[in-house]
Automatic annotation (TrEMBL), chain A:
Lineage start: Bacteria, Bacillati, Bacillota, Clostridia, Eubacteriales
Transmembrane segments: none
Native source organism of the sequence: Desulfosporosinus nitroreducens
Alphabetized PROSITE patterns for the sequence: PTERIN_BINDING
UniProt keyword terms in alphabetical order: Cobalamin, Cobalt, Metal-binding, Methyltransferase, Transferase
Name of the protein described by the UniProt record: Methyltetrahydrofolate cobalamin methyltransferase
Top-rank lineage group of the source organism: Bacteria
TrEMBL record, chain B:
PANTHER family named in the record: ACETYL-COA DECARBONYLASE_SYNTHASE COMPLEX SUBUNIT DELTA, PTHR36214
A Pfam family reported for this protein in Swiss-Prot or TrEMBL: CdhD
Name used for this protein in its record: Acetyl-CoA decarbonylase/synthase complex subunit delta
Domain CO dehydrogenase/acetyl-CoA synthase delta subunit TIM barrel: 16-252
Annotated source species: Desulfosporosinus nitroreducens
Domain of life: Bacteria
Length: 264, 320
């Protein structure tokens, strides 16, 4: 189970301010803190803090300041592919592009870029029309992304299908559909593509978000979830990820398994 | 229709452990031995590297052992002199290492003092240039006493010392750490305890490349399949980047194989089993060859004839 730390995102005030003031400290603070929490990758998102025309430069800067303090590989999170490419150019370790929907124009831009920079891709099961309601249509989009990976020569284990979880308080019927999508995505190819979720979405604006996050994550892992963009400093959540590894026999049990999961 | 060779891609490999130390490294060995480092399943050269070939340590005891005559006769008179016995193992039988088992320390037997034990270790160190594995007796308290003294007396030699177990690892791990030796971590045929013990030892500050796993091997016909599957799982764990299972493995096959009745019962007693001379050699050799297939790095053996069979097997498997 891979943890993609979600915290370096311009939607958070401290990161937004850091970006505006070119102050690396909050970004580097969260890079180190998420690594200590158990993150395997760090998601990097400038958010709306930076005007569109400055995003390329901002991405390059963010990647560089993170790499000054952390060895972790990065998940470059933007809808601006020029910004992502600028980030990929300075990444020291193979990164993951977050993300590409099942739209031909975007596939043509993202998949060759992934090959060029030896990067992974998070593929979203949606197109211009938005997020489908049922598992069937999500899986159809996933199949298009799998076919694209095959066409461009992206190794299947470098493709992370994200079946897009929505907040349970307003889109409750999506939660079980996403679980079913995770199961079916694993049958699309051999080796199967990997899967990922923007986990914290499930609990947007609900009370006791942590409980919802960790319950849904355990359910999703049992259905085939390989990675989650999540709060790497929610210790209970990381404990659940570690325990799932043990209960699915993916890692050999030892009494100190929680500590081992976080060890590098 | 062409056939593509299926190659598994692993994310990690077995850790490397160096045994012994030469003069430049603060010891007196003429050469060191490195084990581990494999990046694939055993001997699958086409998908990864078998970096260091498995090695054979021959067992030498400080008191004359009660082994079967077939082995005793091959060793001859030197059996009462550990230093001369060790030298014969290296010079005549081609042992890569010497495994010195100090049964004489046992309070129920000779009850040798730690100083006497250390002297025997020094004698063997002087007699041979290969790295040494030193294990105490089967009394854990006495063992802690003697290993502390031995570790100090042999400072700098980078011995492989044992035994650390889940309920008794602290003092010997401390001795290994202070005097820069390598440690055997033994678990009772249990991969979970094996992993946990490695974690506990590592938490004390002993680096992972100073630990060797002893999974408690079993003799052929007496549960070898349990250790076989455990070793296989440890190897798969190591290749999948489980650092706490990525140490090289030592197997005391000589001890286990030779306590199987098939290795010593006479032809007259069991006519159906055939000639004892062949059987006793093969029981140890097949036990050893079995565990080689799941990643044994150090084989501890007794019977010189079996050693010669297994050496040939290793040479065939590694192509060297």
């Amino acid at each position: 189970m891979l943890i993609f730390g979600e915290r370096i995102n311009g939607m958070f005030t401290d990161i937004g301010d850091a970006l505006r003031n070119k102050d690396p400290k909050p970004i580097q603070y969260w890079a180190v803190k998420q690594q200590e929490g158990g993150a395997h990758y760090l998601d990097v998102n400038s958010g709306p803090a930076i005007p569109t025309h400055e995003r390329v430069e901002a991405y390059e800067w963010m990647v560089n300041v993170i790499q000054e303090v952390s060895e972790l590989p990065l998940v470059l999170d933007s809808t601006n592919y020029d910004a992502i490419e600028a980030g990929l150019k300075v990444c020291k370790r193979p990164a993951i592009i977050n993300s590409c929907p099942a739209e031909q124009v975007k596939i043509e831009r993202v998949f060759p870029m992934a090959i060029q920079y030896n990067a992974g891709i998070i593929g979203l099961t949606m197109d211009k029309k938005g997020i489908p309601k049922d598992a069937e249509n999500r899986v159809a989009f996933a199949m298009e992304l799998v076919a694209a990976a095959d066409e461009y020569g992206v190794p299947m284990e470098d493709l992370f299908i994200d079946p897009l979880i929505l907040p349970v308080n307003v889109a409750q019927e999506h939660a079980p559909e996403v679980l079913e999508s995770l199961r079916q995505v694993k049958m699309l190819a051999n080796p199967a593509p990997r899967t990922v979720l923007g986990l914290s979405n499930v609990s947007q604006k609900s009370p006791d978000r942590n409980l919802i996050n960790r319950t849904y994550m355990a359910m999703a892992i049992a259905c085939g979830l390989d990675a989650a963009i999540m709060d790497a400093n929610d210790d209970d959540l990381v404990d659940v990820a570690a325990t799932c590894q043990i209960l699915l026999n993916r890692s050999v049990y030892a009494d100190s398994y929680l500590k081992v999961f976080r060890a590098r | 229709m062409s056939v593509t060779l299926v190659k598994e891609k692993y994310s990690s490999k077995v850790g490397e452990v160096v045994l012994g130390a030469t003069a430049e490294q603060g010891g007196t060995r003429t050469s060191t031995i490195t084990v581990g480092g494999d990046s694939a399943l055993p001997f699958l050269h086409f998908e990864g590297e078998t970096k260091n070939r498995p090695v054979i340590a021959m067992e030498v005891t400080d008191v004359v052992p009660a082994w079967n005559e077939m082995i005793m006769n091959q060793i001859g008179d030197v059996i009462s002199d550990p230093a001369a016995w060790a030298k014969k193992c290296v010079d005549d039988f081609g042992a890569d290492l010497i495994y010195l088992k100090l049964n004489g320390a046992d309070p129920e037997a000779e009850n040798r003092s730690p100083e006497d034990c250390a002297r025997i270790v020094k004698d063997v160190l002087a007699a041979v240039g290969v790295p040494l594995i030193v294990e105490g007796c089967d009394d854990s308290e006495k063992n802690n006493e003697i290993m502390a003294v031995i570790a100090e007396a042999a400072t700098g030699e980078n011995l492989l010392i044992g035994i650390a177990e889940q309920d008794n690892y602290k003092s010997i791990a401390a001795a290994a750490m202070v005097h820069k030796h390598t440690l055997i971590a033994r678990s009772p045929l249990d991969i979970n305890i094996c992993k946990q013990l490695n974690i506990l030892i590592n938490e004390m500050g002993l680096p992972l490349n100073k630990i060797v796993i002893d999974p408690t091997v079993a003799g052929l016909g007496f549960g070898i399949e349990y250790v076989y599957s455990i070793m296989e799982r440890a190897r798969l764990g190591a290749l999948a980047n489980d650092k706490m299972l990525s140490m090289p493995i030592i197997c005391t096959v000589g001890y286990e194989a030779n306590r199987c009745k098939e290795a010593y019962a006479s032809n007259e007693e069991f006519p159906g089993w055939g000639d004892l001379a062949d059987r006793s050699v093969l029981w140890e050799a097949v036990t050893a060859s079995g565990v080689l297939q799941v990643g044994a790095s150090i084989l501890v053996m007794r019977n010189p004839a079996a050693v010669s069979v297994v050496k040939k097997n290793i040479a065939d498997m590694t192509g060297k």
